[in-house]
Amino acid sequence: MSKPNILIILSDDHGYGDVSCHAGPNIRTPNIDAIAANGMRFARFYANSPVCSPSRAALLTGCNPDRVGVPGVIRTQEENSWGYFDPSAVTLPQMLNQAGYHTSIIGKWHLGLEPENHPCERGFDLFRGFLGDMMDDYYTHRRCGYNYMRHNYETIDPEGHATDLFTDWSIETIRQKARNDEPFFMYLAYNAPHTPIQPPQDWVESVQTREPDISEQRARYIALVEHMDAGIGRVREALRESGIEQDTLVVYVSDNGGAEDAGAYNGPFRGSKAHMYEGGIRVPCFAEWPGQIPAGRVSEQVAILSDLFPTACEVAGIDAPQHIDSHSVLPTLLGENQDFSERFYYWVRREGNTAPTQIYLGQDYHAVRKGDMKLLHDDPFRPLELYDMAKDPQEEQNLSETAQSAFEELSRFMQEQVQKAGAVPWQKKTENEE
To answer: Catalytic annotation on 52?
Structure first.
């Protein structure tokens, strides 16, 4: 068998509850649901952070994000940017290049504006998308007045809704690569449904006609998700039409939980984007690979976004680097049992001053999980909280005063990770400092 293609579709701020196969209220996501129905649905899958950049760094390196210099969100303004993607970190496209793969990123990058951190300098053969953090407008594609749309190194100014552009460019690339024998890795990173909640108006009207009793905010959010879902359907159809569906592993996942103040729904879980509670970090994740992943399976295996790095390496038939913080879940996908009961999972976010509330001040906050026990602090200045996720998935009963053994074990691991991360700069030195 030749090496399979690998397509990872990453959405932006798509909450666990906002897919119809998770009983999301009022929402219809038939194409995302089809990935789950044709393959595996992870019931307990996590992003590596409750915000964008750290999760993306973890996905592309297999490491805890602060170990590769990205503990927080990388932004256009240096005074409000909380990461510098370590140029020495080995990336997934670099690994797959060595295995003979063509590698592409279509969509949102969000891992730095420095020349050394351009996607084509980090292993991607093709980049068609947006360098920055978020778009201020889905149609003009600007951020703080800057145009960050690129085709490789060239600045471009395309017309159209960003979701449609990213879908079209993905389909074009799939059709091109299907005409030769070179396997491909595509990282399709939509910026939907991140704010601004700006779906095409006809999609809003369709949702409002179908769901007349929901708020306009919720209707607009649903429309933005459903518009993206339709694009995913077109991408999957391109795989079928090109005759490579059977030879392609497709994974759909989100970079963090949904923003409830933008209209998102995170299922039954506490919290939202930016929080270490389940609503901020538990995300939808589905994978299909016809003939390899049995259809209709649901996995209770706890897994995390960074696990996709070694998983992709194993699919490609290469060894992942030894130093990473993640584990391949390919055996789980193929129906085998994996015992992760002794494994630690780690989440981090660093953030700046958000005057007048001033809840971060450049500090970071964390969560750690082992087995069913999860330790967290939900901002840098709050006490640690401990929850038994098997008995209390809504994180309502804090056990920090009573379950001392678990508290000590998890807090000790948290401290060790902070020490490890201290070896990696998360700000780039200026010329005067060098």
So the answer is: yes
